[in-house]
Q: What sequence folds into this?
């Protein structure tokens, strides 16, 4: 089994101070793929990953993908293998509370009622056999938006979701998962992946919070609110293997908590193992 991540900045503090040390501590084999492209975009992750899997992974090798700049691990391979084997889908994605990046459009194309507490796909963590992941990417070389009547209808009104949301691999994988419900599942209960980003009614709130933080630093109301929320949430240990702080402000708070020595013992214990 391999854990694979993609990074254009090999010196990023979250990668070097949290993700890499945590994988070493729990005995996970982390492969860091260096994406040198200056204009690297989130949607490019799929091309880099599939190229690596086609060249360097056997079809039956278990692969766990993780984002590079906002994740860490607290459990190792034995737990990951056992938990994955107990799930009902060959390929399983992390899930979150927010419908991103499509917002309300993403809600409208969901076929079933939301499964709480984490109803919506998050592409910052997923697991499956290399051959299964490659087969999905080969079947859907582009975002399969033409399969969704609502998205076709929006296109007739000059709202092309491929152009608006195509920057994100999460858009691509959300559509694929909805078309392949027997093959691709979501970790709605955070058995393997837990997303610690704040839940928001309107996803536009998060960029505003980030702008507030950039303008006002730690004195920003958004920073103080997120600092308090995250400290309270971290009092309860996670039962997952991967922890994902999937928002810019959340990630900044975690790095500050690390510097301030305020991360809880269940996280610090892994990092200092």
A:
């Amino acid at each position: 089994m391999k854990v694979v991540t993609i990074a254009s900045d090999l010196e990023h503090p979250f990668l070097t101070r949290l993700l890499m040390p945590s994988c070493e501590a729990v005995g996970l084999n982390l492969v860091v793929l260096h994406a040198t492209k200056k204009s690297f975009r989130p949607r490019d992750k799929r091309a880099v990953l599939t190229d690596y899997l086609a060249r360097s992974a056997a079809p039956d090798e278990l692969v766990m993908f993780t984002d590079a700049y906002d994740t860490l691990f607290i459990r190792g391979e034995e737990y990951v293998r056992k938990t994955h084997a107990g799930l009902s889908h060959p390929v399983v994605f992390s899930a979150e509370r927010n419908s991103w990046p499509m917002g309300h459009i993403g809600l409208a194309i969901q076929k079933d009622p939301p499964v709480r507490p984490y109803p919506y796909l998050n592409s910052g963590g997923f697991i499956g056999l290399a051959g299964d992941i490659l087969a999905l990417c080969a079947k859907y070389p582009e975002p399969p938006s033409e399969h969704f009547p609502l998205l076709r209808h929006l296109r007739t009104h000059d709202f092309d979701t491929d152009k608006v949301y195509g920057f994100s691999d999460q858009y691509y994988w959300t559509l694929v998962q909805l078309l392949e419900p027997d093959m691709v599942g979501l970790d709605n209960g955070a058995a393997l992946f837990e997303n610690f980003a704040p839940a928001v009614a309107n996803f536009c709130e998060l960029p505003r919070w980030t702008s507030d933080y950039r303008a006002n630093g730690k004195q920003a109301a958004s920073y103080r609110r997120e600092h308090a929320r995250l400290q309270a949430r971290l009092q309860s240990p996670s039962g997952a293997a991967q922890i994902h702080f999937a928002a810019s402000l959340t990630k900044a708070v975690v790095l500050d908590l690390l510097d301030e020595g305020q991360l809880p013992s269940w996280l610090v214990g892994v990092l200092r193992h």
User: Anything to note?
Assistant: The longest strand covers residues 120-129. The two ends are 21 Å apart (CA to CA).
